[in-house]
């Protein structure tokens, strides 16, 4: 996390120096005030006090100015570092697409609360200790110059209050810090699940249990936060106790020295008030140390996201570099994306052509069954093929590979002469588009959702795409037409309307290869058949790959692949497969077995 701030190291150094000046000015102001009051009690000439009066004013001004500069510089650097950290997290999410690997509410907590830990570390965890080190050394030097035993006692007190107590507070705060971060993530997860799943929870009478889960998570977070606050209070109390004991010890040593004639009364006042001021220097340190546990836990959760292995490699040697021990991928010191090998060079642009998959093997974790196990597939330019099979046979995994949502563990996918794995994912997606099994609709207007595929599309082009999927009449009947807001996740649309809107968006992308994963989900039979007819007509000269469990209209496909257990077990035209014994003919005879 400190490495994230390295580009702004000079700003933090300036902030530490400004903080040291502010703290030293405060301590010096108290020490000088002690000298001025004690000296004035002896009724000297006013000229003897003029210099001290001017210095008092100067220290008062410099304390405020330096403190302002310290806050301005360190917070500016910390907030810029925090912005960089968030950008890196967002970029990593976009690059490796691990969003589904984390619970939604927990991921929000990582992006917000845990990323804020960077700011806590830089503002409260680094600057105060370094400023205290510089100022504390100056206070000890002044006290030692006045009275050696007093200086030694002050040094011992500052070490105990500024080092020992924070170390104990950090050790005691490590476990609560981990629990605090976890409890915050659990509360966020429970709350998001309850909000997003409210209709189903109400329908099944489970809302009370969901609310109880939220209440339990909130109670746990409150309990951990209360313990954390108690730890902060304990650290502050221990620091105050050590400060008081050191002050009394300094006073006793000073009085004894005055009685012995080795210290004058005026330096005694300076010595005592310097000791009092010195403990204001270390007062923030126990609280900062106690927070390090939470900062460490937040940082670990943040880097869990940054270190998630990519599902899609970069081009030509862009795979993440793993540690020799097989640990997490190593990113740049500043937490950036994996570094690509310069030797690989930029791959040549992808030219449209035949889509060919050979020996595709994919599984989601070591030791799990293969979702795809040696699958072969051919799609010629302008061709139309369908992939069918029972649920869990690997159809959607095939779509994920073609959409470049993940890389195959073995095998190749070529478009023309280009191996898609050796090219940037976005370059492949520009040529292979379509609709995944669960398309996402964004909170916004109908037009805004459509223009995700083609930002410069005109209204006429949007209406044409809607007409192709038979959604134009429904959208025209909306209060504001294309400008009508569809709600979060398209909540104001029915399931069928959401599906057709996603299909219209795919047609607008105008990629030469169109992959449709279960495009007729949520559609009634009449609309399903009509939409399929329109899609086949609208595909034009595009290559079309239809992944479906629905056997309607498959007679219009050039080739049908039957996939079972991740392998192609049958291949042929609709008529050929009906003529042969196997899954396809059995599925037609027993519709109840479809999917």
Q: What can you see in these coordinates?
A:
The protein has helices at 9-40, 47-96, 104-146, 148-196, 198-203, 207-260, 265-282, 285-306, 395-402, 425-429, 446-450, 459-468, 472-476, 495-509, 525-539, 574-579, 583-589, and strands spanning 355-362, 372-379, 384-388, 410-415, 418-419, 432-435, 513-517, 543-547, 559-564, 567-572. The protein has 595 residues and is of the alpha/beta class. The protein has two domains: 2-306, ABC transporter type 1, transmembrane domain (ABC transporter transmembrane region fold); 355-593, 3-Layer(aba) Sandwich (Rossmann fold), CATH 3.40.50. The chain has a six-stranded mixed β-sheet with strand order 6-7-8-3-9-10. Strand 9 and strand 10 (567-572) form a beta hairpin. Helix 1 packs across helix 3, helix 1 runs antiparallel to helix 7 (265-282) and helix 4 runs antiparallel to helix 6 (207-260). The longest helix is centred in the middle third of the chain and has 54 residues, at 207-260.
In short:
Residues 355-590 form the ABC transporter domain. With 595 residues, this protein is an alpha/beta fold. The chain is 59% helix and 9% strand.
Task: Give short descriptive properties of this protein.
ATP-binding, transmembrane helix, 6-stranded mixed beta sheet, Rossmann fold, alpha/beta, 595 residues, 2 domains, ABC transporter transmembrane region fold, single chain, membrane, P-loop_NTPase
